[in-house]
Amino acid sequence: MLPEGESVLVHICCAPDASYGIPAMSKRFRVSGFFFNPNIWPGQEHDRRLQATRQLQDALPFVLTVVGGGEEEWEQATRGMEDEPERGRRCEACIRMRLARTAREAKSINIPAFSTVLTVSPKKDAAMVNRAGREEGEKAGVFFLEADMKKNDGFLKSVETAKRFGIYRQNYCGCRYSLRP
């Protein structure tokens, strides 16, 4: 169990999910955001989501670290899984890679715990995300703070908050494979 008031590095996949996740976690912890998403395609979409995250940061001030790169690592992590369905093995590999990077970042800046806002999305399996986070946290030597942010109308609240702040809400997960019908 993580003591209240502890620092947590929170992986941010997109501003809409963070619009619920960051305030929810900030009620109990000192939260810093971490934007690392080499899966987002094309590059203009990545830039648009980063800009929306910075817009959210202006509206709900929080510390934000942005790390670029990782595209080749993402390609390697998902190679051979191009035809997997959404929520399948490819998604787990993608999420695991991003959580592993977040865990290493937390360790390197002496933050004892990390988490993610990925579980706000109804398209994400919270049990899988939490399992991957626990495992990657153990490897890196940091605690993974588990959550299922869909509970308590988290997704609905994220939609409302993003709308209130005029924050861009994307219509696909992010990778080029999630664009296919």
Please describe the structure with a list of short key phrases separated by commas or semicolons.
Rossmann fold; globular; 12% strand; alpha/beta; 181 residues; single chain; 6 helices
CATH class wording: Alpha Beta
Order of helices and strands: EHEHEHHEHEH
Global shape: globular
CA gyration radius, whole angstroms: 15 Å
What's this entry about, in short?
With 181 residues, the protein is of the alpha/beta class. Helices cover 46% and strands 12% of the residues.
Please outline the helices and strands:
Blueprint: E1 7-11, H1 15-26, E2 30-35, H2 43-59, E3 63-66, H3 71-78, H4 89-108, E4 113-116, H5 126-140, E5 143-144, H6 154-165
Parallel strand pairs: 1-2, 1-4, 2-3, 4-5
Give a verbal description of the structure.
With 181 residues, this protein is α/β, with parallel strands linked by helices. The protein has one domain: HUPs (Rossmann fold, 3-Layer(aba) Sandwich). 46% of the residues lie in helices and 12% in strands. It is built from six helices and five strands; from the N terminus they run E-H-E-H-E-H-H-E-H-E-H. Strands 3-2-1-4-5 form a five-stranded parallel β-sheet, with helices on both faces. Strand 2, helix 2 and strand 3 form a beta-alpha-beta unit. Helix 1 packs parallel to helix 2, helix 3 crosses helix 4 and helix 4 packs parallel to helix 5. The N and C termini lie far apart (41 Å). The model has no long low-confidence stretch (mean pLDDT 96).
